[in-house]
# Entry
Amino acid sequence: MNPVIETLINHRSDRSYLDKAIPDAVLDNIILSAYRAPTSVHSQQVSVIVTRDKATKAKIAELAGGQPWIAQAPVFITFVLDMHKTREAMTLIDQQQIAHESIESIVSGSTDVGIALASAMAAAHAQGLGVVPIGGMKRSGSVYRAV
Ligand SMILES: Cc1cc2nc3c(=O)[nH]c(=O)nc-3n(C[C@H](O)[C@H](O)[C@H](O)COP(=O)(O)O)c2cc1C
# Structure
């Protein structure tokens, strides 16, 4: 079977991880796969935040409603609909961002985040890693202020 199809068909979520560091090159492939995913009107509003720090992961695990596999995973990647960076880009060309005021932009931007997440998961699986998406992360909006 085609290896890409095999990777996608064999998807499953993993919630138990080895205590082994993820090499930078492997992580870079995952992040690049996320960033190379298509975005609506090429808006490129997806950002990823890589967390390796144990204490920060433990805090996220707690704030996500008590999900210990977040703390156990060697890397936790947060996917953000990042309208801050697009606002900064618009400012650089003397324009004002209005996308953040539009439901349509929020929905299409959120869809872009999901597409990027899917690409990142496929890249992780293709490199022999286990992953689980964490929607509970939405509960932990204050984590990056808290630590
Ligand atoms: C948007 C989204 C949010 C999810 N949030 C969580 C979560 O917070 N914690 C968790 O353990 N699993 C989470 N999952 C994983 C689902 O529970 C899992 O995909 C589903 O049970 C099907 O299992 P499978 O991925 O092994 O096929 C999430 C999945 C998606 C797509």
Remarks:
- The helical segments are 3-9, 24-35, 54-63, 68-72, 83-92, 103-126, 143-146.
- Residues 11-13, 15, 67, 132-136 surround flavin mononucleotide (CB under 6 Å).
- The first strand starts at residue 46 and ends at 51.
- The longest helix spans residues 103-126.
